[in-house]
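Re: the 558-residue chain
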Amino acid sequence: MYIIINNKKICVNLRYPRHPRSKTLLQLILAIFLSVSVNAQNMPADIIVFLKENKINPEHARKFGALAIQSSDGRIKPVNTFSSEILRKLYKSDNIWGMNSDQFLLSLLAFPEKWMHVRFIYLSDKHFGLYLEMRLGNYFSYIEFFNSNGDYRLQEIIEEIYHKPPSERNKYEKDLLKLDEQIHLLHQLLHSGMLDIFPDKDHPNDKWYAPGDDFNFRDKRDSLFVSSVMPLYLNSIRAGLKTGNWEKADEVLNSIHIFQLEHDTNSRIDDKKIQAELLYNKLNIFRLCKKIYLIFGGILLLLAAASLLWVQGARYTQKLIPLLSLFVLGGFLYHVFGVGLRWYIAGYAPWSNSYETMVFVSLVSVLAGIIFYRQSKIVYALAVLFGGVILFVSGLNWMDPQISSLAPVLKSPWLMFHVALIMISYGFFGISFLLGLTNLTLLKVNKKKGNETIFFRVRELSIINEISLWIGLSALSIGTFLGAVWANESWGRYWGWDPKETWALITIIAYAIVTHAAFIDKNDNRKWVNAGSVIAFLCVLMTYFGVNYFLSGMHSYG
């Protein structure tokens, strides 16, 4: 490869390895040295000036974001949702250089030649650039993925990966495929693709088109409008940036909106749902709930632990806990509102994929804590904190929060009951897991001290743990039974030993053993029940995460 240092071209022989770890130590040291010398993160001065000085008017960007667009799965949503998804996929953030996602998308469409040089494409592994004979770093520009001859740097590697069966691809190769998807996505946007905002009233499948598509409307006037309106609109955007007058851009945008309404013969555009989704995007409900649960859950846990171990200070903590609980209750109601709003927007119960189910499990966990509030403050605090941790995991980059159309097999009323009961059981099993850890810790700490107060607390928490286990086991058993009925309707059989079904059965058996162990009359019985509630939770993790991400089967669509 060639690295430019002080305007001198230096050749470095770094060939593409099968896996990042196959790089020699000498090569890695050389790569780090070069990355420091080159100062690779700097972009050309004119690009930096462009990003600082050419920001789309926020009010006009808001109007653009309210425009309807058809997603790849046929769902009608606001452009704001589309732009947010695009920016998160490319840049892993909700804003870039002081621009929100709508401003970013408009700027990208109006100035594609500039954005080709902006380093905002995120690479999960900062060594990818070196393996592709580029440089070390996490952010790259579109133009950097093409060599001096205009050849796509990933072409040979991607073709090699696609020749492998999916089961034989390692994590590095899967990440390269994701990177290729990012480049392909940006390539389409730079050429006015993917922005499907023009409905074809005569298309049998209700197809919408993007300005860069090969379209041929039955009415030639429609074809003429679509082919001419986007260049006119982008010119008005550039003029608005120069003059500060956005009336022309607003006028052209309004003409596109009128075209949509006139050609939406199947009434797919629901203005109330569009506005609801814009509100949902703006509020970012679950992020705020996460902060509430983590902050107040942590404080409540400290206060509950203080009242547990410091008897004299219990009266002070008992006054603070109800006051802080008002914030938790407010967060919980806001959480319920968020789930309901997503339900209204999507048109189905929002627990059809990993992200949605985690949001729902978090809600159930906090609800379980509220149910046990009067019995134990420490259970309540643990449940709230656990709900915050689940929301934190759901917000990580590998989770996909976008609302999408349901897979055909999920379009059933059984979805609401089967999945809801399963997720409810996971919420209560999570509480039992935390209670088991807490009780085992208290028993270990109090083994030598012999404090009767702590023993009393352990007995109290163990009783609540058993109640939580029974609720979870009942919900899981009923939910699995309803799933079998649904499977018979969808696939013509009640049980097929699919990995998800198998691990659901294993989980039921594991928790049945734990709950029935409570009836064994032995001195160390309480210790084993609490330990069992911790160990059995590994089955839940395998059923929920392991099957979806490590095994393949009929339930892997989650």
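The radius of gyration is 28 Å.
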